[in-house]
Amino acid sequence: MKLLSEIEAAIELLRNGQSARLDNLLFEPSENSISVIGWSAYRNFSSLTKQIAIGELQEIKSTLNTIILKNPQLSFLKTEQLVYILAFDEGGKGSIRLCKEVSSKIEWLATLKD
Description:
This protein is of the alpha+beta class.
C-alpha cells in the first residue's frame, strides 16, 4: 500500500486541478474529466499494433482498479469521467499519445498496424 501522505498529496493535487502520479500512471484533471495516462511497455514503435494497444489500455484500467482497491480514499475516481490514454515513450525525448478510451470507445491518435 502507498504511504498515506502520498495518496493524500495526490488527492489534493487532483482536487486543485493539478496532475498527480501514482504508481506508473499519470492523472491529469481537466474541466470535465480526469485523464489516466499509462505508457506502453514496448520500446520499438514499429512493433506496436492496434491489438497490442488495446491490451495495454486494459492494463491501465486494471492498474487503476488495483490502486483504488488498495487505497479506498481514491474511490471518488469511480464517479469521475475517466479518459484512459496510452502513450509511447520516445526514449526520453517525449511521448506520443497512441490512443484514448472514453466511455468504452477507442479513438486512435497515432497510426498503428492492424
